[in-house]
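The aim of this short unit is practical: by the end, you should be able to scan a pair of folded records and say something sensible about each. We start with the first protein, listed as its amino acid sequence and then its structure tokens.
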Amino acid sequence: MRKFVPIIIAIAGAIFADAAHGQAIVLKDGITKLGPDQFKVEGGKVMKIVKVGGNVATSELQLSSVLRLEWPEPEELTQGKALLASGKTSEALDLLKKGRDFFQPFKDVPGNHFVNLSFAYVEALGAAGKFEETVKAMPALRLLKLSEEQKTQLKILQLNVDRQTSSDYSNIIAQAQNILSETDDSAVGASLWMIQGDVYFKQKKWEQALFAYLRVPVFYGTQVQRVPEAELNSARTLAKMRRFEDAASYYKRIIDSYPGSTIAETAKTEEVSVHGLKNEDESPAKAGEKKDGEAKSDEAKPADAKPADAPAVEAAK
């Protein structure tokens, strides 16, 4: 699936080149439509573009005169998710922010995509490890008009914050399991298993963390934007379990699967610390109990980093 990501991006670009013809602001007379070349968003305002001969003039469009937007799912959202799926988090953040800023003036206009782009952007902030920015963005999400599905998304985002700030691990796991029992949505499931993996990782419950992380590529592979982070965290967990050969294999897979991405560069750096080391014949439980001073090959531990989600190692190999 991963090797098809560049193809997905290319196809998405072609689709939205055609879809651009269907993008328009519909005014309240129900007849007048402004296409993408007849307006622009500038400084948080919508500016109408009027061409007279060779001259171009702009004037602010009053949003009270707008009936709705006729706008297919924006390219920024589709390609932003595709970039996350290829491990290119920084590029995804830039594109999602661009889309969110474009639709911000239209947030109360039917047919806008501001809410979906806002959620995707905050999720990408979390994937990029930008915790403080994620926390700052949360209050604005709560003020939006949310569907039931988006309210569930908000709960998940809050859980993701809680798992980084709270030590009440059992409550976080219980909430995640409760939401899982109420939905079969794959996006929700992938997010919740990532959160559980992170909590178990913080508790040094390596086997449970690995099981949680691996659920994403094994059972939620359609959520391609989640897979790179889940695989990276699986590699980190294997290293903590002192399964160094397995960890090195996972790091190599990430490097080969997501060339040129931030995640691939991170994997290259962390793979050095386990390169050439053999798996140690030790149970995960005992490995987790070892203190740092007692552990062999401390230099083999990858740099501290935030984890993600998934199920059994052998199934994902």
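Turning to the second protein, read its sequence before its tokens, just as you did above.
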Amino acid sequence: MWRDALLMARKDLKIEVRSRVATNQVAPFAIIVLVLFGFALDPDRNVLQTAAPGLFWVAVLFCALLAVQRSFAVEAADAAGDGLRMSGLDPAGIFLGKAAAVALELVGLEALLALGIAFLYGTALSGALLLFATAATATVGLAACGTVYGVLAAGLRVRETLLPLLLLPVVAPVLIGATQAWQVALGTAAGDGWRWVVLLAVFGVVYVTLGVLAFGTLLEEA
């Protein structure tokens, strides 16, 4: 399983490196989202600094949606999905590899977005440990959940419009938990940010487990 996961992750990441979709399309999209949020809310830096955690994670969520769509669009081209099903790879390994590739892409985009909110909104990135723990658990949850719902929508002609409808309501706990934890870390809200990290970790564990157990069946149905 782990060998197949590494093989799948390496394949997806090589495709992204060669196509540069994340670099040339998703990353500029993420920055444009931050800029538009800044225009839409208020030029007052105090308002933007208060809203920065929520805006950051909304932008990450949009990027995750694009990354998952791209991950399964690759398999839809030239009947690559049929080859994947007949490859003999462990379905759990395929799931873990694709989720890991999406997660690594999100890590790079999150680093870019963090620099964006620091530069555009004047946000001071304090509470590093809580910030990193939140980002790690939220990223795992988004990647695992996105991969599960991505394969559900992969075999449908309307997958580009169906995936957001399936995924966005389900990842609402990630958006809420990550935003609340970052607000505590950045000092814009009081409370215990670590309880939100626990929620994110539980969400991630549930969807990683679901993907490992059910991805083979979902892939065959797709």
